[in-house]
Amino acid sequence: MNLPNSITMGRIFCVPVLIWMLSPHFPHGGWHGEQEVIASLFFILVSISDGVDGYLARHRGQITTMGMLLDPIADKLLITSAYVALVEFNPHVVKPWIVVVVIGREFLVSGLRSIASTEGFTIEASDVGKLKTVIQIVSVALATLDRGWHDWYIGWFVIPVHLFAVVGIYYMAGVSIFSAIDYFVAFWRKIERATATRRVTDNAFVLSRRKKKAPPPAHNATQS
Fold first, then answer.
1. The domain that contains 137 carries what CATH number?
2. Residue 161's domain spans which residues?
3. Can you tell me the distance from the alpha carbon of 215 to that of 200, in angstroms, rounded to the nearest whole number?
């Protein structure tokens, strides 16, 4: 197993660790908010590893079928497990319906990708999808920190952690829905184009068969 795939596998193994950090079983330290800070930093570092393994795979020429299979699985496991754990960890910010939206979007995209693969084409990740990934990482970190602090006071400057967490979560939900619609529209356009191309090809094949059809043998008439 090469280095990029090892990093991807490590991200999968970090999922139960993250769930443990966002659970009541995590041992609390001696100062307020230690669990929230450790869990949010851990999640951010693991999320960054997604870009690291992709860069290494391209830079080293180590793009493999196993890596293409495991990478999206690792990403979905990390994100969905974080939101599911946050429903119990910080229910005032992360509502169950938000998790349903996130997981439903992932199921939809995975299903469309499977259909696209069987039809012989792929759908590239759009800018909306990339934005959605960044917002998900930020919203998870903010929702985690919100459990420990409502506001941060830095001298006379106040950082409204709770407000940022709520806005981040709902903004993420909206972008996830828009991203799903954008992905579906791109899929529908390509599937229609592929169907039209196949229809033209089939018609051309039928016409070519008709043109090549041999004429019946001619019968010579005999006069008596």
1. 1.20.120.1760
2. 3-205
3. 26
